[in-house]
Amino acid sequence: MSSIAISDLRDRPDFAKAVADRVWRAFWKDKGHPLSLLTGLVQENLGPGPIPTALVAHEGDRFVGTVSIIASDEDTRPQYTPWVAALWVEPEDRRRGIGAALVERAAEFVFRSGAGRVYLLSGPHRRSFYERLGWSMLEVIDDGMSILTRDAPARQA
Ligand SMILES: CC(C)(COP(=O)(O)OP(=O)(O)OC[C@H]1O[C@@H](n2cnc3c(N)ncnc32)[C@H](O)[C@@H]1OP(=O)(O)O)[C@@H](O)C(=O)NCCC(=O)NCCS
Fold this sequence. Notes:
This protein is of the alpha+beta class. The chain is built from four helices and seven strands. It has helices at residues 16-28, 35-43, 98-112, 127-132, and strands spanning 5-8, 53-59, 62-70, 83-89, 117-122, 136-140, 146-151. Helix 1 (16-28) crosses helix 2. The structure holds coenzyme A. Residues 4-153 form the N-acetyltransferase domain.
């Protein structure tokens, strides 16, 4: 993890293509969506922000992983916002704490931008990963997917 940096995609727009490709393959391709849809969505992360924002983990110019902060990841729960989503680490870089670091940085980004609570959607096999990182179960929705949440740390007086 030592030589891995985590940057805002606005500062490293050269990684936009890799982010679109990996997020498309992992979460969108099997649902029949074209890569061009993701390419367009990823471009939105280059706008003024803070939402949406994509973070990239990289070792110099080598892409290692990504996570996004988006307004909504679950159409049936518009009252919940913002969300951490689209977490991906390259297969050869896994189990070194990079996924955990990306989730942590995404939550910090949300809290720094002023939101007091953040949400994420997890499959059953990933729940314990997030719970170990301090996220709490909020509710189970369709297909066994769970909404987890995390609150901003209390401010020191
Ligand atoms: C989920 C994902 C992002 C995790 O990335 P990662 O970099 O491997 O994450 P971490 O290294 O922080 O943690 C992964 C596991 O490695 C363990 N680990 C972390 N550092 C370790 C180390 N130095 N040695 C051994 N194990 C370690 C963690 O405890 C964790 O264990 P768990 O799977 O039992 O919870 C990655 O597997 C991925 O991209 N998967 C495909 C996409 C996906 O499923 N995204 C999440 C959608 S909810």
